[in-house]
Amino acid sequence: LAKTTQPISMDSYEGQEVNITCSHNNIATNDYITWYQQFPSQGPRFIIQGYKTKVTNEVASLFIPADRKSSTLSLPRVSLSDTAVYYCLVGGAGSYQLTFGKGTKLSVIP
Amino acid sequence: NAGVTQTPKFRILKIGQSMTLQCTQDMNHNYMYWYRQDPGMGLKLIYYSVGAGITDKGEVPNGYNVSRSTTEDFPLRLELAAPSQTSVYFCASSPGTSGRGSQETQYFGPGTRLLVL
Fold first, then answer.
1. Cβ proximity of A98 and A89 under 8 Å
2. Chain A positions in Cβ-Cβ contact with residue B105 (cut-off 8 Å)
3. Is the pLDDT reported for residue B1 higher than 80?
4. A7-21, A31-45, B87-101: which range is least confident on average?
5. In chain B, which residues have their Cβ closer than 8 Å to the Cβ of A94?
6. Which of A27-31, A70-74, B82-86 has the lowest mean pLDDT?
7. Cβ neighbours of B99 in A, within 8 Å
8. What is the rounded CA–CA span in Å between residue B51 and residue B67?
């Protein structure tokens, strides 16, 4: 399982775009990059997943450079309700184990 | 469609007691997982199941047991509770139809908070 490194915490004002970068130098060829969001006292919730280049959905965008050794989760115009912990995960198709690190605690300030 | 449900929401156990944490999903998912989350930490996999009658250990299985007699239910059993098992326990499920293992989207329950004193 590839190890991931992401900032422990970030602060942002409401309405700003937030970019959270995750490094995964040992990513394997068949690994996907997945981001989950966790609010206090709740289970994690899937946000977005990608393999290469750029993926966008109604919640976020995920940017993955050609070497795939890092990825950036982009949250456009954050609001107070985006305050949560964001986890970057890298896993192989042949594994049933997801490794959750400590994640990035995002605090959105009014 | 309730998704993944867990009971109880909160429980206090004395050292040495036993209990079963219940988990049920109504999405007809093949894969189910149990995680624990200690304060300020990420989730660690305890056990997982890829179908009825099939279970396997995760990263931290000691002190726990599981069974999977039906597709819907995946109970977690603590036999001799210890203070080190104080944690929040999350159950999750995923379709298990894409061949992509843990990379499929996992759907999590609301969690069970357990305190062992």
1. yes
2. 46, 49
3. no
4. B87-101
5. 101
6. A27-31
7. 93
8. 10
Best residue in B93, B103, B108, B113 to probe A by mutation, most A CBs within 10 Å?
B103
Question: Which tokens hold the place of B52?
Answer: 């009825």
| pLDDT for A92 | 63
Is B85 strand, coil or helix? helix
- What's at B79, amino acid-wise? E
What is the longest distance spanned by two Cα atoms in chain A? 43
For residue B21, count other CB atoms closer than 10 A to its CB: 23
Specify the DSSP class assigned to residue B39.
T
Among all chains, which residue has been given the structure tokens 């990059």? A33
The torsion defined by the Cα of A28, B91, A73 and B59, in degrees rounded to 10, comes to -40
Is the pLDDT at B101 greater than 80? The verdict is no
**Cα–Cα distance measured from residue A72 to residue A9, given in angstroms and rounded to the nearest whole number:** 15
Residue B3 CA, distance from chain mean position: 14
- Shortest CA gap B100–chain A (Å): 4
